[in-house]
Amino acid sequence: METSTQVPTRRPIVTKSPVDAARAYAARVTRNLFIGGAWVSPHGEAFIDVINPDTEERLATVSAADAEDVDRAVRAARAAFEHPSWSSITPHQRTNYLLKIADLIATHADELAAISSLEMGMPFLMSRFTTNSMVDVFRYYAGWPTKMFGKTNPTDTGSFSYTVREPLGVVGAIIPWNGPILYACWKIATALATGNTVVLKPAEQAPLTCLRFAEILQEAGLPDGVVNVVTGVGEVAGAALVEHPAVAKITFTGSTAVGRQIMAAASRTLKKVSLELGGKSPVVVFPDADLDRAVATLLLGFTGNSGQACTAPTRVLVHESIYDEVAERLVKGASELKLGSPFEETTQLGPLVSRERFERVTGYISRGRTEGARVLSGGDRAGSRGYFVQPTVFGGVKDDMTIAREEIFGPVGALMRFSDESDAVLRGNDTEYGLAASIWTKDTGRAHRVARQLRAGIVWLNTVFEIDPVAPFGGYKQSGLGRELGPESIDDFTQIKTVVLRY
Ligand code: NAP
Ligand code: MG
User: Is the CB of 235 under 6 A from ligand 1?
Assistant: First the structure.
């Protein structure tokens, strides 16, 4: 295996716009993997074509790492974990790395955002907003190294007992394509703040943002091997990471089906797992809701990122007294949404990420039709090039229909009527998922009462999608295990040691 110690050129690219910078990056990206602080050639000869979902053209080709590549990355991460340049630094030095990364994300936000938009189709303005909000994520975690305390335990006078909070070791991070920079940052920032090292496996549909991010981490001066990026397919590279005995923890975001496989495979080495999985999030709209705000927000809720959001509010439960009005307004709003290239300023919906996803989503729409739901708006492909699906509103949806039960991950909302508060709670909770929920009412008593009864990891009152690094995020029921963000994420990335001294 050849090791190239040469870093791809990082001369500032003189460009006219972020999309040019992103295209220039796609053109220069190599098939090398980022291991031990160097861009190294892969062991095997398997590759992945990265497709632009807007045009269906090939953007770049990256490597599909095999188990040997993953092993090499894990060994590099383990060596970095033990190396004094990472294990013996002061908390303040760790903080400085995180702050430096935050600054570099801010500097390169437009380019990172444009690379994501190119490879997975998110409208650029949304992608830029998401990328910029990662600056706050790194700054939030930059505060943690100096604030992770142990405790003094109660003992007799002849002994002294205390706890220390320690990192786990190598963390394997496996992420989906629907927000490559977001999931990479959540996982890497937490791992670095807590003193772990990382092997990141990006999604095969969206590896370029993560590869560019690796260059940025290198620019931040992180010691070699602290973060490694191994592109590849889940069944090979992802599975190898999960099986590897030297990986202490897997932090995974993706589908519930793959989450189950990961948990089963991780049991063989008893590694820790955090799982952020799918959702089928209910929205409850009460008669006293501010309908202007509710309709505008919900529309963006289930169509934003073309519905490819784990917390998308897709099961829209509307009180029967306002059902017709809400349906009418949602249909009008949906028909006015603008589909287009992620880089058009007016675009509200980009394409779905891939042909496979396009076929799944259109499959769900036909299933909705055959099971008797009514398409009130949309329901078809848009245009003839790119993976565009019209924002789709289904009416008359019954609780047991497939489109009310399964995560579609496309711009599809299912409207249902409810009669009273307890009916709304019962039906809202009638799902194997429990990631998010949204309640619309001006009655604050009712808002909090219903929030307490809905079984979801985050409940939004008169809003959606508000996720802040200060507060924990994660799923109830089959939407996941563990929490990201907030103080709780620190627990998930550390372990506690008790030290006892007998005088
Ligand atoms: P996915 O198929 O589960 O893939 C997620 C990641 O896991 C990818 O990197 C994938 O590699 C990898 N993978 C696949 N099989 C694997 C295996 N056997 N072992 C180890 N890794 C494996 O999910 P997706 O379709 O990309 O993403 C959409 C799903 O993610 C939705 O269900 C959505 O709800 C969920 N999601 C959840 C959250 C959350 O925070 N709760 C956030 C976003 C998305 P490949 O790229 O090669 O498939
Ligand atoms: Mg997959």
Answer: yes
What pLDDT does residue 3 have? 42
With a 6 Å cutoff on the Cβ, whether 134 touches ligand 1 is no
Write out the H or E segment, with its range, that includes residue 307.
none
Structure tokens at 333: 């709003």
By most ligand atoms within 8 Å of CB, the mutation choice from 62, 258, 364 for ligand 1 is 258
Active site residue 276: yes
Q: What is the mean pLDDT of residues 165-187?
A: 98
Testing ligand 1's pocket by substitution, the residue of 74, 175, 243, 310 carrying the most ligand atoms inside 8 A of its CB is: 310
Q: Are 21 and 15 in contact (CB under 8 A)?
A: yes
Measuring CA to CA, which residue among 86, 174, 91, 191 is closest to residue 138?
A: 191
- Residue 27, SS3? helix
At residue 452 the predicted structure's pLDDT band, cuts being 50, 70 and 90, is very high
The DSSP bridge partners found for residue 282 are 315
Integer angstrom CA distances of residue 456 from 285, 305, 402, 442:
17, 22, 20, 21
Q: Which-ligand-closest: CA of 176?
A: 1
Read off the pTM. 0.96
Q: Annotated catalytic, 185?
A: no
- For residue 385, report the phi and psi dihedrals to the nearest 5 degrees: -125, 140
Q: What's the pLDDT band for 16 if we cut at 50, 70, 90? A: low
Query: What are the structure tokens assigned to 336, written together?
Result: 């006015």
Distance CA 373, CA 494 (A): 48
